[in-house]
Design a protein that fits this description.
The complex is a heterodimer. By secondary structure, chain A is mostly helical. Chain A is built from eleven helices and no strands. Chain A is flat. Chain B folds into two domains: 140 residues, Rossmann fold (3-Layer(aba) Sandwich), CATH 3.40.50.300; 65 residues, no CATH class. In chain B, helix 2 crosses helix 3, helix 2 runs parallel beside helix 4 and helix 3 crosses helix 4. The two termini of chain B are 35 Å apart. The chains are: A mainly alpha, B alpha/beta.
């Protein structure tokens, strides 16, 4: 099977290949991915089956693990009364707002730090001090400054995200191939031209990769903020479930978080492909 | 001919680098060279003889430690777009299509979109890449990528083409085709070309004048006019005149190779 993979992924990289990529063999690929999908499905069904049987037969007490049916009922109930939708939306809103603000601040700052040493020297001590702090440690201060409203949740997301976006931006901007910068200058590019046509597009794949990693971090920030002080949101939902001894609700909340993060990740991947058309042909 | 001033000149140029062990290394030592407009100069020598250093100084990427480098009598002090460099590793912008790459120099000059398209189309056709305009470099083979860099450079219309072993990464057959293409381009455009190689055959096929360099530190060992009949094709290699010239060049290089233990191809 492994030799098939190699052939399927082969692209002409050598100088001998004067013609562009020969088409991959679609039939082989489809068969292979169908097989892998079947294995994934089987694996999920097995785990669900074990869960179902062990709770149905009473091998595991419902105090520790509710039955799958209970979780599904709980999920539909909360979906029907609009509570779940509202919680998902509230958390998503906080994440997106905090994450967007972090990006707006950190990306330009990171680019400046990468190309202008004094800016990096000025920022580095703060980056070193702030980076080790988990976002949750900002909860007391942000509550004091911003209360327990939306601003505080967004601030937690911001504080937990911006440093990572900054570090990814600095790193990927510094890694832009200096030969390409030389080539651009040699072709008559000004500083602005080099920035727009070489440095920014060169750093973009790394910045986007950093944003994707940070988006997951932003989600964990909002959840911890909501667990500590919030009326709504998925974090608050899970915490309520815990307080009321409703484990099914806790599991519903956890499942929703996974699903929402998965969906945002898929959306981010689509956006990435749209923004980086040249990367589609790159071998990974 | 006597009164013509050189387009490119190096006057008593030296260049010292600091290496990783913090030692001073003399890469080029007291080198003088004058290149006339329209010449096809091949710099020939073993690895480490400072060929690339000289080219980088002509492009303005680095400055000499002593002496001066001149373009049309003016000192080259910063990156010089009139001396276009073609890199061995292509240096194409991966995020731009073939057309985007070829248009780059024109875009930097502020040409309008339609003008850029037209000019770029001519050069893409010239290097036989019509139909690949919307492809990204990663989709092309090495030979095609090198043709894109040549089109990109020609479209930017520099006065001098500096080529740093541009065909070294290509297979033998593609290289031959590219060499003949380059000769054609040189004849058509009349541009001055400074071409680095460590292949004697390549140098004899392409150059109008050969500059043989000695290694560590880089100095000019001999300047040999190449009087093989032009226009040349690969078949020139079978002429007796070619054999004589080749053995003369080889005997110049041989002692260098024995001294340093690195051979040209």
């Amino acid at each position: 099977m492994s030799s098939v993979t190699d052939i399927a992924n082969e692209r002409p990289t050598g100088a001998l290949a004067e013609q562009p990529a020969a088409a991959e063999r679609p039939a082989t690929r489809v068969r292979r991915s169908a097989l892998l999908l079947a294995i994934s499905t089987l694996s999920v069904l097995t785990v669900l089956g074990v869960w179902y049987i062990s709770t149905e037969r009473g091998w595991v007490s419902p105090v520790f693990l509710p039955k799958p049916g209970r979780v599904i009922n709980e999920g539909f109930e909360n979906l029907a009364n609009g509570q779940l939708g509202k919680d998902i939306w509230m958390s998503t809103q906080r994440v997106l707002l905090g994450f967007a603000l972090a990006g707006i601040v950190a990306i330009p700052l990171g680019v400046i730090m990468a190309v202008w040493a004094p800016a990096k020297a000025a920022m580095d001590p703060f980056v070193s001090l702030l980076r080790p702090l988990p976002s949750i440690t900002w909860i007391p201060l942000t509550m004091l400054w911003l209360g327990i409203g939306e601003g505080q949740k967004v601030a937690i997301v911001f504080m937990g995200s911006w440093i990572y976006i900054l570090l990814y931006t600095v790193e990927s901007t510094r890694r832009v191939d200096p030969l390409l910068i030389r080539a651009a200058r040699n072709l008559g590019a000004s500083d602005v031209g080099v920035m727009l046509h070489v440095i920014l597009p060169g750093a973009l794949p790394g910045i986007i990769a950093g944003l994707k990693v940070t988006l997951a971090i932003s989600w964990s920030c909002v959840l911890s903020a909501e667990m500590i002080a919030a009326q709504n949101g998925l974090g608050a939902l899970i915490w309520q479930g815990k307080d009321w001894g409703n484990l099914a609700l806790v599991l519903v909340g956890m499942l929703c978080i996974s699903l929402v993060v998965l969906v945002t990740d898929k959306l981010a991947n689509m956006l990435e492909r749209l923004l980086l058309p040249w990367e589609r042909h790159q071998r990974t | 001919m006597e009164t013509m001033s050189p387009i490119l000149a190096a006057h008593r140029v030296s260049k010292t680098f600091t290496n990783a062990k913090d030692q001073q290394v003399l890469a080029v030592d007291d080198l003088s060279l004058e290149i006339d407009e329209g010449e096809f100069i091949c710099l020939l020598g073993a690895s480490g003889c400072g060929k690339s250093t000289i080219l980088n100084m002509f492009a303005g990427f680095i400055q000499p430690t002593a002496g001066e480098v001149l373009l049309r009598g003016q000192k080259i002090l910063k990156v010089e777009p009139r001396c276009g460099m073609i890199f061995q590793s292509y240096a194409l912008f991966p995020w731009k299509t073939v057309r985007g790459n070829v248009e780059f120099g024109l875009r930097m000059k502020g040409l309008s979109r339609t003008e850029r398209r037209e000019r770029a189309a001519d050069f893409i056709a010239m290097v036989n890449l019509r139909g690949f305009e919307e492809h990204y470099p990663a989709e092309l083979s090495g030979g095609m990528q090198q043709r894109v860099t040549i089109a990109r450079m020609l479209a930017a219309d520099p006065e001098v083409l500096l080529m740093d072993e541009p065909f070294a990464a290509l297979d033998a057959m593609t290289r031959q085709v590219m060499q003949e293409e380059l000769l054609k381009i040189h004849q058509q455009s009349g541009k001055t070309i400074v071409f680095i190689t460590h292949s004697i055959d390549e140098a004899l096929l392409l150059s109008s004048r050969l500059v043989v360099m000695s290694a560590r530190p880089g100095r000019i060992k001999a300047v040999i006019p190449n009087e093989l009949p032009a226009p040349r094709q690969i078949a020139v290699q079978f002429s007796p005149q070619y054999g004589e010239l080749k053995s003369a060049v080889w005997s110049l290089i041989e002692s260098e190779v024995r001294r340093h233990g690195t051979a040209p191809d």
